[in-house]
From TrEMBL, chain A:
Residues 5-120 form the Thiamine pyrophosphate enzyme N-terminal TPP-binding domain. Its EC number is 2.2.1.6. The keyword Amino-acid biosynthesis applies. Pathway: Amino-acid biosynthesis; L-valine biosynthesis; L-valine from pyruvate: step 1/4; Amino-acid biosynthesis; L-isoleucine biosynthesis; L-isoleucine from 2-oxobutanoate: step 1/4. Its cofactor is Mg(2+); thiamine diphosphate. It comes from Albimonas donghaensis. This is Acetolactate synthase. GO terms for biological process: isoleucine biosynthetic process; L-valine biosynthetic process.
UniProtKB/TrEMBL annotation, chain B:
Belongs to the acetolactate synthase small subunit family. Catalyzes the conversion of 2 pyruvate molecules into acetolactate in the first common step of the biosynthetic pathway of the branched-amino acids such as leucine, isoleucine, and valine. GO terms for molecular function: acetolactate synthase activity; acetolactate synthase regulator activity. One of its GO terms (biological process) is L-valine biosynthetic process. It comes from Albimonas donghaensis. It catalyses: 2 pyruvate + H(+) = (2S)-2-acetolactate + CO2. Dimer of large and small chains. Coiled coil: none annotated. This is Acetolactate synthase small subunit. Its EC number is 2.2.1.6. Pfam families: ACT_AHAS_ss, ALS_ss_C. It is an enzyme of class 2 (transferase). PROSITE patterns: ACT. Pathway: Amino-acid biosynthesis; L-valine biosynthesis; L-valine from pyruvate: step 1/4; Amino-acid biosynthesis; L-isoleucine biosynthesis; L-isoleucine from 2-oxobutanoate: step 1/4.
């Protein structure tokens, strides 16, 4: 099927043919022809954000909560540069995203024209791939290829830069099936010998652990099902990175909780002491490994990853398996069954006894208060009062994010949207809007800190415009809590610029936006206030005034190993040495 | 000092093996990278090296197949075996990269570099430069009464050696192509 149409029509047609129903964007001079075409149709819904960064994070929220790529449309110059943070975020967290940018007409490129920026040059290192399309005839092929690249292999953001004259000019449209194939062909099936080796490790492991990550969720629902089947069949304990929460249910018997810098004591100790580590769709990030030379010293390691460059990047592994998590887990389970599903469960008894001893430490214990709301308590109550809802959680970045990961429990994948790799403050507000647009009837809560919230709070206006009833649950300590915590532990309690002196009245601000504002300062009032938030049919800013100097524990101080976790305030003296201070 | 007024030292040692020695545990590798020849492809590859802190000792690129728009990049890099493996993996996953080959480890290969070397000299130094050019099988591609331009092909260290010998004789300019390399034997990439 090929037809003659303008470049702008080609863009809209290609989006339709790729099954796009929602675009997050912001118009401007260099994308006016495309906006004109959007105006003339009703198949694609356009969500007008308040800042281009918001468009990218909203698209990320949409993508993570649906499994479909998020689509962003912005103009040239500042439109494109404002979208950079969201692309870098999506690149580090492997989120499929298609960013369409307008560009000055081809005959003005290089002349420092109004709103001209070298978008391709600027975004090259923060996209999986990008294209400048100079011929209208090539536009449909590039658009279809862009969807292929964004969603195949390790997902990621792609950008297509479209000069304005290319949007106006007429060219031939070809459908997705007619787009020429790229040399990019990621491998999905794991190597048979390596799968056999992994199965042998399952059979002989005495202290195993399944270390899972966002790759399980990106691989799709089948991967989640297979992970649960593997955990059930083997009886192996399961931990997960921040990105992988929900792939294995938090209510599952084998669940150890999140691992890593602020992960569970039992999860980190099990990682350190295991003899067989099965890393499934995770990437041995520095937040996970702690000190590399002391990382799980006694274990043989299997690493399943679709990105060959993730293998042996930080940690050398014994059994590398390059492939899609679902394909590889299916093959492992099949081979394991074919070999008789050999497993001596009694051999794991000692291991589980040890894990139960670590669990008994109760590493999330905190000192309660009857006068001040402890942030942990606020999240415990939020969990208790919302766990039965059709619930999606987004977060900002900082202490509240780690407490949310610790105290909220996820039973299903795609319910937890957070900025893991890049750690982008300001991610949560727009992401929550994107999630709510994709799931209009669900309960969407952004667990936020007041500082992160203020970075992108203008998107509340988007939420009001599109009647997206997102709940902004702000743990307000009037501090940049995580930075303050590091200043306390590492920089001699010199709290350099981590106190926000002039915060707005969030309740009044909510009202000014046309949303509802709720403030809660007393633990005794908290449940009722949360219920009030849940009952309100519209966006809410919930200003939860919490303890101002609470630190986030447990914690692996930077530069330390998994078995050197800090469990509370008492153990913080001299916790981070000079070497650790160099790390972030 | 001898009759040519050449200071002792630089040219007194062997003319070969002049490449800088590698740091502990590092290796030098020659990678052949076949890419789609689209706008900006070289910037992508260079950006990968600079962005991730990898070394480039030499880099050459040119279209090798106009019909199917293929370019071949030959890059000489150094690093520990783990870093070299990362470089290959990072290159391989790029959307524009068709194939990556490590010519250093995948059997024998031939490496050549071409250099144009301008030497301005008169008298005995001029004669000596011509004599040495003959020893190195360099060709004279331009001459005036006060200068020569030599064309020299060979492995990089041969060119290093020749350039070093020319330095005291009136070396003016050097233009080098960087390494081009290909596998020995009948098989292609």
């Amino acid at each position: 099927m090929s037809r003659e149409m303008t470049g702008a029509q080609i863009v809209v047609q290609a989006l339709k043919d790729q099954g796009v129903d929602t675009v997050f964007g912001y118009p401007g001079g260099a994308v006016l022809p495309i906006y004109d075409e959007l105006f003339k149709q009703n198949d694609i819904r356009h969500i007008l954000v308040r800042h281009e960064q918001g468009a990218t994070h909203a698209a990320e929220g949409y993508a993570r909560s649906t499994g479909k790529p998020g689509v962003v449309l912005v103009t040239s110059g500042p439109g494109a540069t404002n979208a950079v943070t969201g692309m870098a975020d999506a690149l580090l967290d492997s989120i499929p995203m298609i960013v369409l940018t307008g560009q000055v007409p081809t005959f003005l490129i290089g002349s420092d024209a109004f709103q001209e920026a070298d978008t391709i040059g600027i975004t090259r290192p923060c996209t999986k791939h990008n294209w400048l399309v100079k011929e209208t005839d090539q536009l449909s092929d590039v658009l279809h290829q862009a969807f292929f690249v964004a969603t195949n292999g390790r997902p990621g953001p792609v950008l297509i830069d479209i000069p304005k004259d290319v949007q106006f000019a007429t060219g031939t449209y070809r459908g997705p099936e007619d787009a020429p194939a790229l040399p990019y062909r990621p491998r999905t099936e794991g190597d048979a010998d390596m799968i056999e080796a992994a199965v042998e490790m399952i059979e002989t492991a005495e202290r195993p652990i399944l270390y899972t990550g966002g790759g399980v969720i990106n691989s799709g629902d089948e991967a989640t099902r297979l992970l649960r089947e593997l955990a059930e069949a083997t009886g192996f304990p399961v931990t997960s990175t921040l990105m992988g929460l929900g792939a294995y249910p938090a209510s599952g018997e084998a669940w150890l909780g999140m691992l890593g810098m602020h992960g569970m004591y039992e999860a980190n100790m099990a990682m350190h002491d295991c003899d067989a580590m099965f890393c499934i769709g995770a990437r041995f990030d520095d937040r996970i490994t702690g000190r590399l030379d002391a990382f799980s010293p006694g274990s043989k390691k299997v690493h399943i990853d679709i990105d060959p460059s993730s293998i042996n990047k930080n940690v050398m592994v014994d059994v590398p398996i390059i492939g899609d998590v679902a394909c590889v887990l299916a093959a492992i389970l099949e081979r394991w069954k074919a070999r008789g599903s050999k497993l001596k469960r009694d051999r794991l008894t000692g291991w589980w006894t040890q894990i139960d001893a670590w669990r008994a430490i109760k590493c999330l214990t905190y000192k309660g208060s009857e006068t001040v709301i402890k942030p942990q308590y606020a999240l415990e109550r939020l969990e208790a009062l919302t766990r039965d809802h059709d619930r999606y959680i987004t977060t900002e970045v900082g202490q509240h994010q780690m407490w949310a990961a610790q105290f909220l429990h996820f039973q299903e994948p795609k319910r937890w949207m957070t900025s893991g790799g890049l750690g982008t403050m300001g991610y949560g507000v727009p992401a929550s809007v994107g999630v709510q647009i994709a799931h209009p009837d669900a309960l969407v809560i952004n667990v936020a800190g007041e500082a992160s919230f203020m970075m992108t709070m203008q998107e509340l206006s988007t939420a009001v415009q599109y009647r997206a009833p997102v709940k902004q649950f702000i743990l307000n300590n009037e501090r940049l809590g995580m930075v303050r915590q590091w200043q306390q532990l590492l920089h001699g309690e010199r709290y350099s610029h981590t106190y926000s002196e002039a915060l707005p009245d969030f309740v009044k601000m909510a009202e000014a936006f046309g949303a509802k504002g709720i403030r809660c300062e007393n633990p005794a009032d908290l449940d009722e206030a949360i219920r009030e938030m849940l009952a309100y049919d519209g966006p809410v800013i919930f200003d939860c005034m919490v303890e101002k100097h609470e630190n986030c524990f447990p914690m692996i101080p930077s530069g330390k190993a998994h078995n050197e976790m800090l469990l509370g305030e008492a153990s913080t003296e001299g916790a981070i040495d000079a070497g650790g201070g160099m790390l972030v | 000092m001898n009759a040519l007024n050449i200071p002792q030292g630089s040219t007194a040692h062997s003319a070969y093996s002049l490449r800088s020695s590698l740091a502990e545990g590092e290796e030098r590798r020659t990678l052949a990278v076949l890419v789609v020849n689209e706008a900006g492809v070289l910037a992508r590859v260079i950006g990968l090296f600079s962005g991730r802190g990898y070394n480039i000792e030499s880099l050459t690129v040119a279209e090798t197949d106009h019909v199917s728009r293929r370019s071949r990049i030959t890059v000489v890099t150094t690093g520990t075996p783990a870093v070299i493996a990362q470089i290959k993996a990072q290159l391989s996953r790029m959307v524009v990269v068709i194939d990556v080959h490590d010519l250093t480890t995948e059997g024998p290969s031939v490496e050549r570099e071409l250099a144009l070397i301008k030497v301005a000299a008169t008298g005995e130094a001029r004669v000596e430069s011509l004599r040495l050019a003959d020893v190195f099988r360099a060709r004279v591609v331009d001459t005036t009464l006060r200068s020569f331009v030599f064309e020299l092909t060979g492995p990089s260290d041969k060119i290093d050696a020749f350039v070093e010998l020319m330095a005291p004789l009136g070396l003016v300019d050097v233009s080098r192509t960087g390494v081009a390399a290909i596998k020995r034997g009948p098989e292609g990439m």
